[in-house]
Amino acid sequence: MIGARQTAGGAPAVDGSTMLETIIVSGKTNRNAASGSGFQGTPDWVYQTPSSVSVVSREAIRNSATRNSRELFADVPGVVVSNDNAQSQGLNVNIRGLQDQTRINMMIDGARQNFQRSAHGSTGLTYVDPAFIRQVDIEKSGTSGVGGAASLGGSVNFRTLVADDLIEAGRNWGAEIDGTTGTNAYHFAGNASAAIRLSDSFSILGGISYKDVGKYDIGSRHPNTTNLGNVYDQMPWGSETWSGLLKTEMQPTDDTTLDLSWLHYDTEFAQGTDSNLQNDVNDVTNDTVTASFGWDPDSELIDLKTRLWYNRVKDEEHRSQRTSSMREVFVDYTMSGVGGSIENTSRFDLPIGNLSLNYGVEAFRDDGDTKANGDDITDDPDEAWWYQGANGSGTRDVVSGFANATLDHDDWLSVSGGIRYDYYTIDGSTTVFSELKQIKIDPDCVWRCATITIPQEAYAADVDLSGGAWSPTFGVTVKPADGLQLFAKYAHTYRPPTVMEAVMGGTHVGGASSGTGRFAPNPWIEPEQADTFEIGANLSYDSVFQAGDSFRAKAVAFYRRVDNYIAIGTVDLDEETYQTNFGAYVNLDGTTPMRGVELEANYDAGRYYIGGSFSYLDADYATTYTYNGTSHLTDSYILFVPPRTKFSLDGGVRFFEEKLTLGGRVTHVGAADKNIGGSASAGLVSSWQTGDYTLFDIYGSYKFNPKTTLRFAVNNVTDVAYVPALGQSTLPAPGRTVTASLNFKF
């Protein structure tokens, strides 16, 4: 078998011809390709995969001139990025209506990014620099393989650069420098990276990146349907970001590989968090370390892959004084994660077809720790729980074993099935506060009764949860004709609570003497579970209308139902110690169904191209929960409802032997559903209800030579003022922005 780093050898025959060694072609898909003939450069393997997968290609990343990593997903069907905190450089991806609390498994090179931070908005934040990303792989459904543990709605994996991205064929080193600047406070973004191949089996890659963006102007065209809020001009904006990448790729033997990688990210930005317009300064660092080993000998029984990873995100926040009772404080939010996986694939040639077995184990630990410090907090330690309580400290361990089987019959039929078992434990401790109460000295008194005040007391609350579940998958793929693939898939997924959901305590910032402003863990919380059904089609054709053209398309329809959806509600813990009526994470009643359609397609004729994507989502979120035998409306929880529709059309032309490319893009995002939930939640949810909007962008590039490329872009050409999907009305998006970048290769 010839692998990615092997060559076929042979000996010359007597007649002078060359007799090659036997070449065994396996059914492995080349997922290493970073670009292809699909929509915005999507690699071809996406249109050969019988599942709802999408890719943000290296080509799309280069052409986007992003202000932050959220903008990478603008044209991906079925995906919307949360913009509720547009000042932060953190990324929160919503896939088919699910986000936050590791419902979507966010990864960098397979290393989980499980950082959580509670606030009035989204909680799951991933910090990554697009400068070192070669592509983004998006899985919108559950899988039984590596990466599927403890995830409810899919995964997003940012894959970093490899040496072959910089070193051209026939050379042993390569380098690249890229610099971008623009209008509307897009001050500068630049990066430099280099790789050297010291031998056929050892290479080193390194890179450094810097970005400085400031306070932008919103659009000058204000549609009547857009609520722009009234505090934008006073809000803090801008960020300064440094990042670095160091990677080695080794081939110790002919059939083994070993890759080591370290990605460092450091960003500083300010946030306005309330109507007082006080600025909180955040310094966030993200370190991701991975080690990957592969063993692929000349045997169909062994194709072994292992991975170890470590991730640590630390958000150091300085909160300025709000009022006399809300004083200056320094809060450190930290999430450390460590994990690994081992999997093997065995292949068999049976009379009825080719059988592939994939099996393995993955495990990881999340270790959350939040600390608040300040002069006044030292005098009154209970104040620390204003910040520590909603961001609990504790550990979550997940261990998962899986097995999958795929049978390919006569190149037209494929049947697959898999099973996974997830087991989790959560261990942590927090502090809860009793209610401040006044009671009558004489219980029989009915008029002008003397009372005494029962002060609030702090109680330690320990959390110890565990559980597990089986999750099956099943799929069928049919190829009725060349270039056409039809598929159907079912996946059951299981997500245990996070540390944040399980180890909640303290009070709302500013303190609370009663009511749901006091928080507590819910000892009865159950994991979420979901069933997803999909049907879809892949189309892949070449030379359709003329020699050398290509057409690629993927269409998927899905239905998902979620049980035990977790949101904020109220629980009672202990009447005797006045521990009642706490805000806590609860399981919603019934089923939350989600259904939709996703489509992407592209036609490329060389001289011109046109492609597009479309999404439709209909989600009916549950709004009640039950405690003490009574049904209640969810109380003041934030629920992010993505728009029902999203449409993108991208086309362009190429001139001068494809040295010059001119393109344009139109994106329409529909309105989100009206307010949902009860009267208590409607007010908060309304802050994140966005109207529809349409954007026009143009872009282009010119290759002066194979080593030098100029790129330009004009985003939001019509300078429309709008609030982006999953955003909030006080944080509108940037107005017209012109950028230009120059790329040099060496």
From TrEMBL:
In the record, biological process GO terms are:
siderophore transmembrane transport
Chief place of localization? membrane
Protein location: Cell outer membrane
Could you tell me which Gene3D superfamilies the record lists for this protein? TonB-dependent receptor, beta-barrel domain (2.40.170.20), TonB-dependent receptor, plug domain (2.170.130.10)
Per the record, membrane topology reads: Multi-pass membrane protein
Q: Which GO terms describe its cellular component?
A: cell outer membrane
Q: Where is the TonB-dependent receptor plug domain?
A: 47-154
Q: What is the lineage of its organism?
A: Bacteria, Pseudomonadati, Pseudomonadota, Alphaproteobacteria, Hyphomicrobiales
* Family statement: Belongs to the TonB-dependent receptor family.
Mind telling me which InterPro entries this protein's record contains? Beta-barrel_TonB, Beta-barrel_TonB_sf, Plug_dom, Plug_dom_sf, TonB-dep_rcpt-like, TonB_haem/Hb_rcpt, TonB_Hb/transfer/lactofer_rcpt, TonB_rcpt_CS
According to its UniProt entry, this protein's organism is Ectorhizobium quercum
- One short Pfam name that applies is Plug
Protein name, per record: TonB-dependent hemoglobin/transferrin/lactoferrin family receptor
Query: Which sequence ranges form a coiled-coil region, renumbered to this chain?
Result: none
